[in-house]
């Protein structure tokens, strides 16, 4: 996207957020709109595909703090109209010579720090000539990186802990196989644009200024396709389905985003492809939970097991392990099985944390009740002296 797009397009309106929206609000709105307009959910709907491209373009700017800051400054500067007002004549108020660097509060030839030290001429030229330097010839648009794309994958709990390779099917723009991305009918080639003569830009005079802008005939490419490819109709790209084998590393967490370099949309004019971002959703397990690199498990035990102690055999993700429950274990105590958790990148593993839950039966037989009463007679009372002292104050 060009700097001119930043001036003409309201990316905040595209994402349906206020200019004061936080990064999280922008991300949330983008994900919602991208999900609603994604081509996979709207097959054959060209309007939805255009909306998907628009929200992706808007998020590429507003989702990047540095780009968003430059975008806001550029929109504020040009949206005020001061360039248009001052560019009507060569003189300033009172007949004084007009110095364009005054717009930035610096001396002639100086630069505004907000734009990386570039002078006004450099900035102005980059907007209207596709990046040509001050006083230099306008340059055609060069190779451009393709857009990044996003998708979401749901993994089973065990696969996320151990790691897994899964085929991922995507429906997204890609290079046309018929014309290899040239847009021209097989056997033909694009020809030099007769309007800009291959420069990709045209010059236009307005008052005291000379402007350069992308050539409308060739869209700034410098070449024109006379005989269009029958498959992509001259665009060089088509929406197609492709399958990738994606390796999810051991220990991938819910909400984690994995980046695959060069797996996004193809670049323009020979530029590199964008990246693919895979958002991971981990399905919960019926037994195990996870805290960082540790797995968690709750195991019920009986009152006699808690009092007398026992050897407890519990499951892990890869087998079983035996844990010793010492006599007099209270409910809620956590036992640790070392090395039975999530394997980290350094090869070491977290632990399995087993929480013991002493189960109190809802009803007992007469024989069990008699045994418990006999047990109670032989058991020291609970240490409640500090509580009894407080109770006596209100007696």
TrEMBL record:
Show where the CR-type domain sits: 163-241
Positions of the zinc fingers (CR-type)?
163-241
Source taxon at top rank: Bacteria
Coiled coil: which residue ranges?
Answer: none
Residue ranges of the J domain? 10-75
SMART domains in the cross-refs: DnaJ (SM00271)
Q: Where in the cell is it found?
A: Cytoplasm
Report each CXXCXGXG motif repeat as a residue range: 176-183, 193-200, 215-222, 229-236
Q: Locate the region Disordered.
A: 83-103
Alphabetical keyword list: Chaperone, Cytoplasm, DNA replication, Metal-binding, Repeat, Stress response, Zinc, Zinc-finger
User: What is the first-listed, main subcellular location in coarse terms?
Assistant: cytoplasm
Q: Which cofactor does it need?
A: Zn(2+)
Where, in this chain's numbering, is Zn(2+) 1 bound? 176, 179, 229, 232
Q: Name one GO molecular function term.
A: zinc ion binding
Q: What is the UniProt remark on how the cofactor binds and its stoichiometry?
A: Binds 2 Zn(2+) ions per monomer.
Q: Which GO CC terms are listed, alphabetically?
A: cytoplasm
* Entry's family note: Belongs to the DnaJ family.
Q: What does the record say about domains?
A: The J domain is necessary and sufficient to stimulate DnaK ATPase activity. Zinc center 1 plays an important role in the autonomous, DnaK-independent chaperone activity of DnaJ. Zinc center 2 is essential for interaction with DnaK and for DnaJ activity.
| Entries under HAMAP family matching the protein | DnaJ (MF_01152)
The protein in question is named: Chaperone protein DnaJ
What is the source species? Micromonospora carbonacea
Per the record, the gene is dnaJ
